[in-house]
């Protein structure tokens, strides 16, 4: 299904996003590092049957500019400014990988205001500083020609090893190189904020971009509203089967936490 890109300029800042429309509950979906709205839309498109999905490009992605002298709170302000402009008050969050860090900071910001936002944290590398393979991939992405990355992704998909969308492939050549060192620095010592908001942690078994201990270290035993699930064939390089399993868990979570 194709959705028209919407472009806004709010106080001199450019926004580009998909809004799938509809009357269902609103989900704000945040893509991962060196990703794009096209890449994550292809991945979560089945959600648009039940939810209105608002999917922005984050700064430094999709051709948007990025300033290296910012922190995660700046990303929070960026997303919330768009939602304010769209007059969206009640929403759930889905943050994939790097987008999960931004989602958590939004949760923390809104909790101060008295709001509790149900949030899915999908393949978020809380052990970012020690995820060696993922770190090397990110560093390599700064220097390897985009055509070479596209070739590798295409081969992986044809061999059935990964489920890569056309949007994910096109995103390779559209991110700002400065976003990678920013993320490596900002997230190395990231401390997950304490929150009472309902959280669902969705991870893939044997995800080569996340260390094995990341999922095991997530403790939800003290929460009645948070849970975690490990998906076979899921994670950053999920197959279509793994993606669909994860989406089923996500739909159930948001039905329980409207």
Please describe the topology of this protein.
Elements: E1 6-10, E2 13-19, E3 26-30, H1 37-44, E4 52-56, H2 72-85, E5 92-96, H3 98-112, E6 119-122, H4 132-141, H5 146-158, H6 166-171, H7 179-186, E7 199-204, H8 213-217, E8 227-231, H9 240-256
Parallel strand pairs: 3-4, 3-5, 5-6, 6-7, 7-8
Antiparallel strand pairs: 1-2, 2-4
Helix pairs in contact: 2-3
Task: Explain this structure.
- The chain has a single domain (6-256), classed as Rossmann fold, CATH 3.40.50.
- It has an 8-stranded mixed sheet, sandwiched between helices.
- Helix 8 (213-217) links the parallel strand 7 (199-204) and strand 8 (227-231).
- The chain is 37% helix and 16% strand.
- The protein is α/β, with parallel strands linked by helices and 258 residues long.
- The protein has helices spanning 37-44, 72-85, 98-112, 132-141, 146-158, 166-171, 179-186, 213-217, 240-256, and strands at residues 6-10, 13-19, 26-30, 52-56, 92-96, 119-122, 199-204, 227-231.
Question: How would you concisely characterize the structure shown here?
Answer:
The chain has an 8-stranded mixed β-sheet, with helices on both faces.
Descriptive terms for the model:
single chain, 258 residues, alpha/beta, Rossmann fold, 9 helices, globular
CATH architecture: 3-Layer(aba) Sandwich
Counting structural domains, the number is 1
Given the C-alpha coordinates, what overall shape results? globular
Count helical runs.
9
CATH superfamily: Alpha/Beta hydrolase fold, catalytic domain
Sketch the topology as an H/E string, one letter per element.
EEEHEHEHEHHHHEHEH
CATH top level is Alpha Beta
